[in-house]
Structures are given as C-alpha cells and as structure tokens.
Design a protein that fits this description.
The chain is of the alpha+beta class. The protein folds into 3 domains: 3-85, no CATH class; 106-179; 183-338, Heat Shock Protein 90 (2-Layer Sandwich), CATH 3.30.565.10. Helix content is 60%, strand content 13%. The chain contains 11 helices and 7 strands. The chain has helices at 3-9, 11-30, 35-73, 90-144, 151-175, 187-197, 199-204, 222-238, 285-289, 298-309, 333-338; strands at 183-186, 208-212, 217-220, 247-254, 258-265, 312-318, 322-330. It has a 5-stranded mixed beta sheet with strand order 2-4-5-7-6, covered by helices on one side. The chain is elongated, with a radius of gyration of 34 Å. The two termini are 57 Å apart.
Length: 339
C-alpha cells in the first residue's frame, strides 16, 4: 500500500482539514490571541491530524500488504481468508465480509459443478460399457466369419474400439482421482497383453514386434499402462514406413532409482517442428494431416495418465528414421523393503 496513493485517496479530507486549520487560525487571530498561543494550537492541530492519518494509514497498510502477500504465496488464492486475520477497521470488515460471501458462493458453485461432472462421468462410463458389448459382439462375429468381411471392416472396428477406449480413459484421467490402483505388476505381462491385442494389426501391416529385457516389476496401474502402451503401439503401426523390415521394439533399462520402458520403431518419424507439441490436446501435426485416422488425442491422454500415475513420458524422433517413446517408472525403496 503506497503512501502517495493513500494520500491521493484522502485528498478531500486533507483539503477540508486545511480549510478548517486556516479558519481556526483566523478565528484565533480575530480574538487577538497571542502569536505564541496561536502557534502552539496550530502545532497541536497539525500533529493530531498527522497522527490520526498515520494511524489509519499504517493500520490499513499492514492488513492490505498481508492480504496481497498471502495471495501471492498461495497456489489457490481463494483460500486466503483462512490465512488472514479479520481487520479491526470498518472498511476492512466490509471487504472481508464481501470476500467471505464471494468465497462461499464460489464453493457452492464448485460443489454443484463437481456433482454435475460426477453425474456426467458416470453416464459416459455406463454408456461406454454398454457400447462395448455390441462392439465386442461385432469383433467376435468378424473373427468367426472372416470369409464374409473384408479387412476394411476389421480396420473400422479396430478404430471404433480404440476411440471408445480413448473416451473412457479421457474421462477417467480428467475427472477422477480414485479410478486407478497402483501396485507392483510384472512389466512383461502388460507388454504381452498389448502385443496380443494388436497382433492382427501387427501381422496385417507386416511389422516385426520385438520384445527384449522387460522382466521387471514396476509400481503402476496395469489397465492404465496397457492403454498407454496401446496408444503408442497403435501410432507406431499407423505411421510405419513402406519398407520390408518395419519393426517395433520394446525394451527396458534399469538404473539405481528408475526403470525405463522404451518403445522404438523405424517408422516415418516426427518432424522437429512438431516434436514439442505431440502431447498437446488434438494436435495432429504434419503426419496427422496426412492420415485421416488421427485424432490427436492418444498421446495427450497417455501423457495425462502418466502424470496421474507419477510416471514420466518422453518422446524423441528423427524424420524418416525412428521414433522412441520412453516411460520412466520411479523405484519405491520403502515398498521394496517391506514387500
């Protein structure tokens, strides 16, 4: 709180006080008081005015400075009322009460919004599970009557299944805190499940699926990790190069404090102009614009899920050579000691 701005705000009071000071002085002169008496009275008046203004200024200065300092320190500024003392001056009490009412209204609205989001999330999840039943039936029908349906039908079913999965995990990642369960899982089993799920696409696209050195246990949610790997491997298949030795290589590396799972392919790669945006929402980039099947959501959801799980996901690529996605799992020494 600046003194200059405070005095500017109080300029009418200062002007009126100055007029009163001059008026009192003239009255004292009219009554022919001695000059010494008039000077003493004027000094007392000026001193009292400065004292009253000073007390008012510093009382407000301490409150408002404390208020704004607390706001700057807090990540959630609306919690500031929990951190400050109630002011002992009238204007401050008005502000405090206004902030209290605003805060109360905001909390009530957030509660309503959370209830609406919860209802929406539950509906979407229910809808997805209902849709997956006929979708699974269609896939089963296709597998049992491959002579009737062509590969185009299979690709469309696969796309539909992937989009349904994306919606499910997008809702969970954006609106839930308790939809995952972290425990120690066998990394090789997760990779095997993802490989089997994508086996038809891998074979149809003549891609070699290589798995090396993945016999590690990591702390994660197995279903969420399967979805993350599924999105990455789908991209590797989708953006493969038309060469004879196309491959996807999955391998793990261990260090003292982490385990890194790497998914490497020799596909078309990602332009350097796009590499920093591939995890952005709905970003499809140069490759996506050339591929109508791209939504720009897969890696965005994967990044969000990794963040929720406490994992780190990175990507590096060189155009027309390779793309490598790395998921890093931190080791939990406390867990390892007690297991």
């Amino acid at each position: 709180m600046k003194l200059s701005l405070y005095l500017k705000d109080k300029r009418y009071i200062v002007i009126l006080s100055l007029i009163n000071f001059i008026t009192i002085t003239l009255i004292l002169l009219a009554f022919k008081l001695s000059k010494d008496a008039i000077i003493v009275i004027d000094v007392i008046l000026v001193f009292n005015f400065i004292l009253i203004l000073g007390i008012d200024y510093f009382r407000k200065k301490f409150f408002y400075n404390d208020l704004f300092n607390k706001i700057e320190q807090l990540d959630k500024s609306y919690l500031v009322l929990e951190m400050i003392n109630k002011p002992d001056f009238y204007e401050g009490n008005i502000l405090y009460q206004a902030l209290y009412d605003i805060n109360k209204s905001m909390i009530e609205n957030i509660k309503i919004h959370e209830e609406q989001m919860k209802d929406f999330k539950e509906y979407i999840e229910m809808w997805i599970h209902e849709v997956k039943v006929p979708l699974s039936s269609l896939i089963l029908t296709f597998n049992n009557h491959k002579n009737i349906f062509n590969n185009k039908t299979k690709r469309q079913l696969k796309r539909l299944e992937n989009y349904v999965e994306q919606v499910l995990y997008y809702v969970r990642a954006e609106n839930a805190n308790k939809d995952y369960f972290i425990k120690e899982i066998d990394l090789s089993k997760v990779v095997k499940n993802v490989g089997l799920k994508n086996m038809d696409d891998i074979l149809d696209n003549k891609v070699s699926f290589k798995v090396e050195n993945i016999n590690y246990n990591v702390l994660t949610d197995s279903k969420w990790l399967e979805f993350i790997l599924d999105q990455i491997i789908n991209n590797s298949i989708k953006y493969k190069r038309n060469i004879r030795n196309s491959y996807i290589k999955v391998y793990a590396l261990e260090s003292e404090d982490k385990i890194s799972l790497n998914i490497l392919d020799n596909g078309i790669g990602i332009p350097q102009s796009d590499i920093n945006q591939v995890f952005d929402k709905t970003f499809t980039g140069t490759n996506g614009r050339n591929n109508n099947a791209s939504t720009g959501m897969g890696l965005y959801i994967a990044k969000n899920l990794c963040k929720k799980l406490g994992h780190k996901i990175d990507i590096e690529s060189k155009e027309n050579e390779y793309t490598q996605v790395t998921i890093t799992f931190a080791k939990n020494k406390y867990f390892n000691v007690l297991k």
